[in-house]
Amino acid sequence: MSSGLDIALIQTRTPATAREALAHVEPLIREAASGGAKFVLTPEGTNVLEQRRDRREAAITTEDEDVAVLGLRRLAAELGVWLLIGSAIVRSDQAGDGRAANRSLLIDASGGIVARYDKLHVFDVNLPNGETYRESATVRPGDGAAVADTPWGRLGLTICYDIRFPHLHRQLAKAGASMIAIPAAFTAPTGEAHWETLLRARAIETGAFVLAPAQGGLHEDGRRTWGRSTVVGPWGEIIAKADHDEPCIVRAKLDMEAVARARAAVPSLTHDRDYLPAV
């Protein structure tokens, strides 16, 4: 296992159709690979970002038919890089459920899908500024956590709102994850208030690298996302970040041995105790 890994987070402002989304993200991935990245990660909603229900229904298709997913698989094989599609919004394969899946896809350097993860925690909130979201109305939540092997270590998969559930990240770390992906389309109000704090907390708690590519800016459907794609080290330090919402590439080199050092210094993953529940 190599001790150094060149990665790139792709920050996007994804359009409302898969074809336009592929045209938007592909040049950024090519640029990242030409700069030496071996592992490239994109945000939540890489293939389509559209919350107006009628247009969303017209835009999404199955994973096997999605233009962006198919194009990104071909691109990974062409460039010889591993690629995490942070999430694709695709039709659910659950019979009788008309909702979509919000699905991370880990692609290897041959273009093969080596792991899938459907977002566990859907974003049903009422924000102080009056914004209301009911992701559960259109997205069927997943029912299982996912950790996948890569050439550089194990990768834990999460998506956006999952960041607020520490026990999920702890379980991923205990399953051997040395890196945890948190691709997101964070709202501007919650991003400004909580994004960096939550990212650093999840890294500190798990002693893992946190890799968080994000959507940023004002989208076609009227929503505004926070951006600020960030890489956090296992000691909680910010390794690299964008300080804006514009589409961009955030590059970092990961010293994978830092995971063992952090976990040896504070071995909290081995210190769980059984206890009586609070009443």
UniProtKB/TrEMBL annotation:
It comes from the Bacteria. The lineage of its organism: Bacteria, Pseudomonadati, Pseudomonadota, Alphaproteobacteria, Caulobacterales. Pfam families: CN_hydrolase. GO terms for molecular function: hydrolase activity. Keywords: Hydrolase. The keyword NADP does not apply. Residues 5-256 form the CN hydrolase domain. This is Carbon-nitrogen hydrolase family protein. PANTHER family: DEAMINATED GLUTATHIONE AMIDASE, NITRILASE-RELATED. Belongs to the carbon-nitrogen hydrolase superfamily. NIT1/NIT2 family. It comes from Brevundimonas fontaquae. InterPro entries: C-N_Hydrolase (IPR003010), C-N_Hydrolase_sf (IPR036526), Nit1/2_C-N_Hydrolase (IPR045254), UPF0012_CS (IPR001110). Transmembrane segments: none annotated. SUPFAM superfamilies: Carbon-nitrogen hydrolase (SSF56317).
